Amino acid sequence: MSNGHAIAAVTRTLQTLLVAATPNVTMLPLDKARDGAASDEQLNLFLYNTPMSAAFRNSDPMGLRPGESGSPPLPLMLHYLITAYGADEASAHRVLGLAMSILHDHTLLGRQEIVDANHGEPVSDLDRQPERVRITPLTLSTHDMFELWSGFATSYRVSAAYEVSVVLIDSARTPRSPLPVLRRGAAAVAGGDAVLTAVLAPERAMIATVGASVRMLGSNLAAVSAVEFSHPRLSAPLVAAPEVAGDQERRVRVPADAGAVCGFYQVRALTERVGVPRVASNSVPMGLGPTISVTSPLAVPAGTVSVTLRCQPRIVAGQEVSVLLGSASAAPATVVTAPDAGDFSTVTATFPLVGPGTYTVRLRIDGADSDPVRYTGSPAVPEFDPAVQVVVS
């Protein structure tokens, strides 16, 4: 790749190209580009910015072999301002037009052009970098152009901006080149580790519930011996053994543990082999919703409606809870989790000014909703479960 002389090599190559528009091509700051007494045609090539290219910022150096690592190159985008001068404005416009035409026809800097333009200069290796150097017109807003010229305290002249990229300056750090592996370690096993792509709710269910059999999708799942369900409100993950064998899909039942809570879990598969440390897969999210039953009357008069329901698993301190009646949402007035109530909680919410109609009740805990849908008939079709519907008359 290129070295630190690459910036100068690009500027020198552009200067050589622009000589075809006028022999007088300078490379000076804006306030020193033009002598007040001069009247000849002139182009000034000014490098005013050198941002880095995000596309190459973290890329590996060219030529690395598998297993090697090295510092990424310094990827620069060079921003130039080309300013035209002449005996009058028409002359300056003509010179600028010729310069822009030349750069329009040279969207790529040729490798031989770079070599010829920098003959006798320090070697930059710019012509040898794998990525070609491209010239692109750069649009500057009126505000940006004004700030650029006012920073040099000089009068504005008609100009054109260009971006020349990408210049890859190689790092001086030596890459790490580890030796080849001669023997696998004692813990090495044939086949890849388990990888999860998704954990899906049971068929015909909107969300998983406690005790439900969920589907794990992924690869290399045949050797999985346990599944962990982690939740930020649990001190330790819930663990269950997979039920149905398979390499790309397996089933596991959500543990009906007394400490289970609703919300979103991170699920990962564990593989244990004799004499080998346990290997954990990546984690994928899974929502666990509450199972509810409405204990308040299902038929009530219009007006203020109070809904009481019982949910499983129980609600723990700090969880965000809301009750939904149709599309309306309300914070619970009371949440009761009695010590002798097992793994249930009782929630009551009040909705004012409810008109006649049939409303489906849902409970949302930490973003996970209860499932209000059931399937009936043959073939099975979905419908809202009447057991969680309140009729207001």
C-alpha Rg (nearest Å): 35 Å
| CATH T-level fold name of the largest domain | STM4215-like
Distance between the termini: 79 Å
> What's the number of structural domains?
3
What is the highest CATH level, the class of the largest domain?
Alpha Beta
Morphology call: elongated
Poorly predicted regions are: none
What share of residues are in beta strands? 35-45%
Q: Would you list the SSEs in sequence order as H and E?
A: HEEEHHEHEEEEEEEEEEEEEEEEEEEEEE
Largest sheet: 6 strands, mixed
The helix/strand class is: mainly beta
CATH architecture term of the largest domain: 2-Layer Sandwich
InterPro entries: Pvc16_N
Domain Pvc16 N-terminal: 9-182
What does this molecule look like?
The chain has 3 domains: 164 residues, STM4215-like (2-Layer Sandwich); 94 residues, Immunoglobulins (Immunoglobulin-like, Sandwich), CATH 2.60.40.10; 102 residues, Immunoglobulin-like. The mean pLDDT is 90. With 393 residues, the chain is mainly beta. The protein contains 4 helices and 26 strands. Strands 16, 18, 19, 22, 23 and 26 form a 6-stranded mixed sheet that branches. Strands 1-2-3-5-4 form a 5-stranded mixed sheet.
